[in-house]
Amino acid sequence: MNNKDYSTKISERMWNQPDKGELEAEREKxxxxxxxxxxxxxxxxxxxxDGIETVFxxxxxxxxxxxxxxxxxxKVTHFDISLPMIDKAKEIAAKEGVLDNITxxxxxxxxxxxxxxxxxxxxMSFDSPISYTYPNQExxxxxxxxxxxxxxxxxxxxRMGALPYASNPIQKNQFILDKDSKDGWVQWCISxxxxxxxxxxxxxxxxxxxxxxxxxxxxxESKKAYDNGEAPWSISYHFMPDxxxxxxxxxxxxNIQFAGPGAFARTIPxxxxxxxxxxxxxxxxxxxxxxxxxSNPYVCGMGKDNLFAKGEI
Length: 313
Ligand SMILES: C[S@@+](CC[C@H](N)C(=O)[O-])C[C@H]1O[C@@H](n2cnc3c(N)ncnc32)[C@H](O)[C@@H]1O
Description:
Number of domains: 1
Distance between the termini: 36 Å
Shape: globular
Bound molecules: S-adenosylmethionine
């Protein structure tokens, strides 16, 4: 089996776990960094809908953004590798009354040959589906550009943004909104905090490996785990900003703009973030300012863990 098959199948198996849709649908209610990132992408989408009637959402998950645009009256193709994610998205779309505006397609981003050139006004893909197609991430981007007519908006795993996580096993604790939340991940972060600190030691070798290759973890280990019937964390390729810019430019994308959603929030301690988020006025102003700060090209690699890019075809 070659790398491509492993990468696709590992993704499939991981995202097909039955609770994935439910967990992903709740994510932005539990962690402040997810709230900031979602708000950023929503603002960008809503500001870039001029001339857009048809949309392709690649790796659309439980529909955070496909459903938002369907509610705006756009015709959206919701494309994802995982049936549980698609089922969850269908359930939410039905509740929102927008099933008629969405076509659900199960498929792998590695193969978009079913779509003709310029099939969709807007092509989008958020929160790293492109990164999960490693080692085919460049081809996936060029295929996404090929099927776009007017605009492309994506967010991929960010090498500069994610690397500090490798040196901070308790980074997610900073973003817990409600310490009493029943969410399993929140409670795990809290109960595991002291052990995570005690067990941690900084490894220059490990961070240098990711800095140089863009890959966390060990591909060979992932393959072994897959062979043993486990669902390892997908292999995910982390981009550098210049690298992503080069790939987009090579494929003819113009007016490329980058951002690092989450860059401002990651500088603020938990107690202050929670205070801000629990006051509706401060929360709205904070999210608005995050959008301005995080859009500054000087912080574009340093968002939460995503590198955001948009451009015109
Ligand atoms: C982190 S979720 C993001 C979902 C959605 N874009 C959002 O922002 O809410 C990643 C999604 O990518 C999908 N995915 C992963 N690898 C994929 C592939 N090779 N082809 C299509 N979808 C894929 C997963 O099933 C999952 O729904």
